[in-house]
Input
Amino acid sequence: MYAFDYHRPSSLADAAKLLAGNSEAKLLAGGHTLIPTMKQRLANPPVLVDLGRVPELRGIQKSGSTLTIGAMTTHDEVAKSADVRSAIPGLCDVAAAIGDPHVRNRGTIGGSIANNDPAADYPAALLALGATIGTNKREIKADDFFKGLFSTALGDGEIITRISFPVPAKFAYMKFANPASRYALVGVAVAQTGGAARVAVTGAGSNGVFRHKAMETALGKGWSAQSLAGVATPASDMMSDMHGDGAYRAHLVGVLARRAVAKAG
Amino acid sequence: MADTGMGASVKRKEDQRFITGKGQYTDDINRPGQTWAVFVRSPHAHANLKGIDASAALASTGCLAVYTGADLAKDKVGNLICGWMIHSKDGSPMKAGPHPALAQGKVRYVGDHVAVVIAETLAQARDAAEKVNVDYEVLPAAVDPATTQNPGQPQVHAEAPNNTVYQWHLGDKAKTDAAFAAAKHVTKLDLTNNRLVPNAIEPRAAIGEYDQGQESFTLWTTSQNPHVTRLVLAAFIGLAPEHKLRVIAPDVGGGFGSKIFIYAEETVCLWASRKVGRPVKWVADRTESFLSDAHGRDHVTTAELAVDGDGKILALRVKTKANLGGYLSTFASSVPTYLYAPLLSGQYDIGAIYCEVDGVYTNTTPVDAYRGAGRPEATFVVERLVEVAARETGRDPAEFRRQNFIKSFPHATPVIMTYDAGDYAACLDKALELADVKGLAARKAASAKNGKKRGLGYSAYIEACGIAPSQAVGSLGAGVGLWESAEVRVNPTGSVEVLTGSHSHGQGHETTFAQLVSQRLGIPIEQITVVHGDTDKVQFGMGTYGSRSGAVGMSAIYHAIDKVIVKAKKVAGFVLEVPEPTVDFKDGIFSSTATNKTLTFPEVALQAYIAHKFSGQQLEPGLKEGAFFDPTNFTFPSGVHICELEIDPETGATTIDKWTAVDDFGTLVNPMIVEGQVHGGIAQGVGQALLEGAVYDKEGQLLTASYMDYCMPRAADLPSYQVAMLGTPCPSNPLGIKGCGEAGAIAAPAAVMNAITDALGHEQIAMPATPLAVWRAAQKAPAKMAAE
Output
């Protein structure tokens, strides 16, 4: 780790001010990607702005047909939240399957989606659920937020404040974990909201999380695992590494999608 | 005293300090004036060193020195050694290139040591290390052990043409070939024993310190054998005379073999401490551990088994290429030769065996002993072959094994070993019962109904532990004897210190060794301290590896206690005023048929030191005895493991459903600790079979250099084991102990792979059977099994 300046603002306004004043500043949420990268000397931000004490970024609310989760809410808080459980039980399962207890008690939903790791779990859930990402400047649809590997629509000085989810009729996420890292080798989230089916895939796509339009069309005609039989996933669009080549990942997308639909009921 | 004696599951005395964070590991030790070392490591697998420019590093804040291989050469520091001479079948000695602690002229694997930077703080040392400018002329790399001997491959060492260190063999080729020619059936398999990274929880570390006044060195290091480290550093590397070098291996957090060896880092820290005039500390980070801890296994083997028409195994023929890496590590040469081929008879009566092993260089991390060291590789060959031969000839795998088991002892195999005791059928019977093999067909049908494939695999392993008779290993090329030492010091108050040359790095010696003393001297276990890991305290010892510390280390303690009791009886005779031959010692009490008075052990200890009841002419005061124990044979732990698992053919995921282990370890000292060793060993063996594998790309980059890609077994990957033990006492040591530390890792891989291939219906899969590999294999049609 190289030397850096550390700030811990106690309001969103102060955080935004610090970020605006330091073009090279990095936001620190749970730190589960940033800190190890810094320790390996692969990242060298001169300024860190720790969001851990910003009260506006915390909390989970359910109002009407919307569930809102503050950006600094940990995976463990989401996994154990009664409000999340009553609104979108499958989202508790998503959070509960991230990493290990240490990760879940530090890692946050905002940090996860801001990093947009192509094997992270939350991006698939947000995309399938049609979530909206709120920042200190605007609201961004999940469809417009994820921009490929480790890339998002966030602009300079923009801080994720909360994520809002329309409560779906059905939702489930199935993950086949990379045996070593326990990230998703393939993860598939399926949702039915307002009569529309959405399918999002993480861990597999060569350009990160994506919506599987062919599966959405098939599920739109009839919500059942059988509807997905024969729906192709091109292996050429998949990532390939020692843990899984494109053919295997493409195959798993189909398997997990069918299992997710069955689980969603 | 039964509650703390031999055979009692005494809770581990050392765990209180370990689980409350009060252990003292090398990294917990900080010396006054200490500096930090960081190694500049090669990013290339194979390159000429054209130049090293340290000027920017030396100008960096806090940097004290930068040393390279040229500085080592200038100071005439000896090279690292390989301590076991292997001769090729043509009689020539093995061909090894030099192994300097800092590279000289060439680097030979990613992670090879190019320079050391010493600075005031660790961060400053890292900053300076980044500023060392190394001019590499990158060369093509030889990476694959299967092809490294081919013409045109890059040459790792000029001293070893075609990257061949030795072409060794064992057994009777003509007799074996004749048996194959006459066989009704031959089973042939191509097998890969995947390369493993040891992954001890505690990374390696070292602190070197030079005392100018005493002209002596101290080295704190993560070692399984501090005396051997001292011997090598003194006699071969030449850093200090043996009596001017103290090596301390304090608490050590796991080793699995990887901390046996004498590495570059501790050598350099010790040498540099004199040059900079201050203590020099180095602690590996996890990436360095992946790159520079000696790896394990890495065999490519073709193996054949000859069987007659009645199912009798006639002969075994094996050809193995063993990857030794870029340099020969301390015991690298012995692992795929004398620790491997002599176990190829397994538990079976086989008339003829012939094994050829080529030890080869590649541009990869050196390979050396790792939990089991040669014996897991041998068991994997034998138990895969036997299972497949049974399938191919239409025989039940359990009954095929039973038919071919060795049934009388002693039994001389065609490959050096003479097995002393065992009851292989008893272990098999117990395992069949515990595993409910009778119910397998119903369980397979139930799995099939759920779209799953269920399989069951056996592994009837044997290992040679308790290494080893010094004369025997000397005749096979070992550079050292493999006895063990002990000293039992009785204090005037009757408490006892046991000094042992064994070294505990997780095994629980502070408990088990004390159990022996508690039982034999009749004193509470709290009155006993086991001292190890410091060459200034323990006179000499050979350390802990090869499941030897119970069989050899405790036997030395046993003999030292014998001498203590003999002396204590003499003291008691004087105090009780009775003739010494009438004195009896039992359960901590000295008594005599000549008096109704008795003495406790502490009372006699006190009398031995105050020496008021006897004169100097009659008896020496004091109560302290030592012993060196050299075993008369290896020990031969054995057993049967049965793995039952279920495969999800849609995803390739494998779930181990049941694990049955029936082991014969001879006499058990502490059944709880033994069971823990079995559990840990199985976890490592399952890791090898399903999860772990070091992968290099063709440039020689280690792709699995972190836990993001190298998969260690987790609790959730493992079932709850059914473990049972049947003991036939070992006749070659006074305690009947055989050793248990490696058995699980030796037995498990074959059991898993036999179960997977049973589930799949064919043999076309190699370790590690990752989900990807299993999914691919599940696409293939089951093999047609030939009926007899």
Summary: The interface with chain A takes residues 123, 126, 130, 287, 650-653, 691, 695, 703-704, 707-712, 770-772, 775-776 of chain B (CB under 8 Å).
